[in-house]
Amino acid sequence: MSGFWRTGARAGLLWLSAGCGGGSGDGGSGPVDPPPNLLGLTVAGGGDNVPDRYTSDLWVHGGYAYTGTWGGFSRNGNAGNVLKIWSLAAAGAPELVDSLVVPLIATVSDLEVSADGTVLLFSAEGGPNAGIFLHDLGNPRRPVLLDSVQVNGGVHTATLGEIGGRRYVFAARNPPDPALLIFDVTDPGNITPAATVSIPPSYGIHDTFVRDGLAFVFAWNTGVIIFDVGNGIAGGSPAAPAELSRLVTDAAGVSAGPAVHNGWWFHNPVTHEARYLFIGQEGPGVIGAQSSGDIHVVDVSDLRHPVEVARFHLAGAGTHNFWIDEANQILYAAYYNQGVIALDVSGTLSGDLADRLVGHLLPGGPGDTYTWGVQLAGGSLYASDMLSGLWQIGIAP
Amino acid sequence: MSSLALLGLLLGGAVRDTSAQARPWIRWSAQAITAWGGADPVPGGGRLDEIRMVQPVVMVRAGWGPRFSLLGTLDLEGLTLPDGELTMGGWGEGFVDRRHPHTYAHELLLTGNDLLGRADGPARFSLTVGKGFAPFGTDDPMSRPALRFPVNHHLAQILERAVAIAAFRRGAVTAEAGLFNGDEPERPGQWPRIGRFGDSWSGRLTGAPTPGLELQGSYALVHSPEHRPGAGTDQDKWSASARWERRIGGHPLYGLVEWARTSEAGGFFVFHSFLAEGAWTVGRHRLHYRFERTERPEEERISNFRSRRPHLENSILGTTRWTIHSLGYALGGLEVGGVRLEPLGEVSAGSIVRVDSGLFDVATLYGDHRFWSWSLGVRLAAGGGMHRMGRYGAAAEAVDSREHRHDMGVR
Question: How far is CA B284 from CA A312, B209, B281, in A?
Fold first, then answer.
């Protein structure tokens, strides 16, 4: 589907949405309208394909997908110590081709494949081997371990960043001593520490987004911290990050506070602006059933003085990881017990974004949906669901 | 801190007022229970037995005249059961299905009694500062008949905090208000985080409408109890109870009925408890029984008996409801060399059900929805009896004025 066609379709759908009165709220006493699905999100393939374990994060690259497993509670007697390897059929449907067991860990917490498709990165929590792992993807069906680093407390997330011709891993070290760990992995067979930046123990660091030499650190109730790690704006580097600013987003009525969890710095190809940083708030939840927390929008036009400008709230659920289809200005968010949502993020964003909701799907259906992450690849949206596995979601006008 | 300075000034005043007629005094007591205990099933399935020394405590009460008193309770569980006491359903301070060891300084409190003297007529006003229980809920389980700690320990008591408590008693009514730090201990040697003093508060109203009967209602707002730096969720806590203790036909009879509710994260999580217990003593023999139905959070565990601390996020796996019947017997009246010996035994039968939804599954963890637990041991005690932990100053005087001993029979 061409970007031009989809942009046009999205504009029409938004017109319909606006004409119909937009989104629903949950503040009134009346029944809550079901979220709209104007973008036509539909199940295209996969699903109910990981019955042995709870699924965690995902990454799709080329004709393969990789998913992690979560071990906070055993499923069928199994821990979350497995990396699942999927082959994507011509139409994009995932088929499990192998499972890689990682000894002495409890959870595969985050995944990423390098842009050139040569290296698979994943992080792990729980057990003595918790830390980060790099695998060679010379054969995408058979990842081969290149190197690993054990980290006390485990690593919640890990992200690759290309800076100054070198490749780095930005890792979120868990409490009791939370920190942003930066490793030089230009030689993936030799993970080399580059820097350690302590993060206040207000639950510490949960995720990092790296782009254009900037690292956005999502640090729970400390808020978001923006570091120059090679951009040049403040003289920082991966070995010596320089803090530019920090912002504590609004608690939005969540008693646990801002709970800043993840984010995405949106580069809008239509407006040529890099104005908005989207932040996920992870409020209290009952894993597998309930969640809370909003999507917060921060204007980072002035990186030294970020300002929160908008927010999206979905009744009865909370957000988790994002993916943005930048060409079409659509943000996809995993929304735990409410599955997957799509937001129109074109133009100027301000205030309540309820009327920007253009897509919604519970891939596993009610009671079998608790979606962890999403990724757009090959014209499909892929979703990893803790309960119901890996899904291919079609986007139809 | 200004509130502490004010308290110090008032306490100092109390000492000066009474110095001319004050005389020093001291009382002490000590106890320890050595018991074989077990449960079937335990987390992971199967039966587990162990021999432990539980509740090894030394209590000292000292004073200078009637107005100035010091209370200290040294608890050595950090040495005798660093991994906690096997207690199916027990939870708190990072332990699950094991009751956590208390901190070494379980209570250490300075009290100024009747600070207003005749100015408030027959009423009594006191101030207490130190480390101990916040004025909330019911007595510490250690000072009650059953050996097994109830599941509701962290719903019905707020313990081991840096507290400042004002208590006012007039006639049969006592009102208490307290400031304290919200953070609960993480290990036996840890002191309250004094920088958080005052971030939490509680109030308790107690009445004694008839001899032997005590009615209590209390509320507490506790900030981030499970995350010491303060990033955790807050708790709203309510408690109501009726306690009865008298002699019937010359035999001590004790009963307690309590209800407790804790709402956390603005009501996202709500846990309820109902408990009823009683003890009947005839001569050297005491029987006790407890019924409890309590809900608890199921957290992600890092091992069979430990949950993740410090927290990484505010999610739980679900809520379970524990229904437990406990029946026990103790034999008193034995003494060797000034040490009282009290053989005792207790057996509990319980069931576990999941409440609402979530990933937690009872059968997956335990292999069964029902369990048994048992204890057989001997209590060694010397000195006076154990005081009702959790009431200080005018609130403790109210108890003392109604009861000569808090031994519920055979201790």
Answer: 68, 30, 7
Predicted complex ipTM exceeds 0.95: no
Identify residue A184 by its one-letter amino acid code: D
Q: Is the pLDDT of residue B174 over 90?
A: yes
Q: Would you say B175 and B203 are in contact if contact means Cβ atoms under 8 Å apart?
A: yes
**Residue position matching structure tokens 């139905």:** B293
Output the six-digit token pair for A222: 């400390």
Question: With contacts defined as CB-CB under 8 Å, which chain B residues touch A204?
Answer: 312
Q: Please name the helix (run of DSSP H) or strand (run of DSSP E) that holds residue A137, with its range, or none.
A: none
What is d(CA A346, CA A14) in angstroms, rounded to the nearest whole number?
10
Could you say which of B230, B310, B358 has the minimum Cβ distance to residue A287? B358
The domains of chain B are located at: 3-408
User: Where in A185-283 does DSSP place strands (E)?
Assistant: 192-198, 207-211, 214-218, 224-228, 242-247, 260-268, 273-281
Give the architecture (CATH level 2) of B3-408: Beta Barrel (2.40)
What's the rounded Cα separation, in Å, for the pair B63 and B30?
18
Contact at 8 Å (CB) between B124 and B169? yes
Q: Do A174 and B312 touch (CB under 8 A)?
A: yes
**Rounded to 5°, angle at Cα A175 from A171 and A178:** 50
C-alpha distances out from residue A214 to A169, A322, A331, Å: 13, 18, 21
Which of chain A's residues have a Cβ under 8 Å away from the Cβ of B265?
255-256, 283-284
Chain B closest CA to A128's CA: distance in Å? 12
Comparing C-alpha atoms, which of B336, B347, B340, B329 is closest to residue B379?
B340
Task: Please give the mean pLDDT across all residues of chain A.
Answer: 92
**Which residues fall within 8 angstroms of residue A207, CB to CB, at 6 or more apart?**
A156, A157, A159, A172, A218, A261, A262, A263
Question: Helix, strand, coil % (nearest 5) of chain B?
Answer: 10, 55, 35
| Whether pLDDT at B9 is above 60 | no
* A272, burial (CB in 10 Å: exposed 0-12, middle 13-18, buried 19+): exposed
Mean pLDDT of all residues in chain B?
A: 92
b/e per residue, B62-89, with b = 16+ CB within 10 A?
A: ebbbebbbebbbbbbbbebbeebbbbbb
For the entire predicted model, the pTM comes to 0.91
Those of residues 209-228 in A touching chain B at CB distance below 8 A are 220-221
In chain B, residues with a C-beta closer than 8 Å to the C-beta of A289 are 318, 356-359
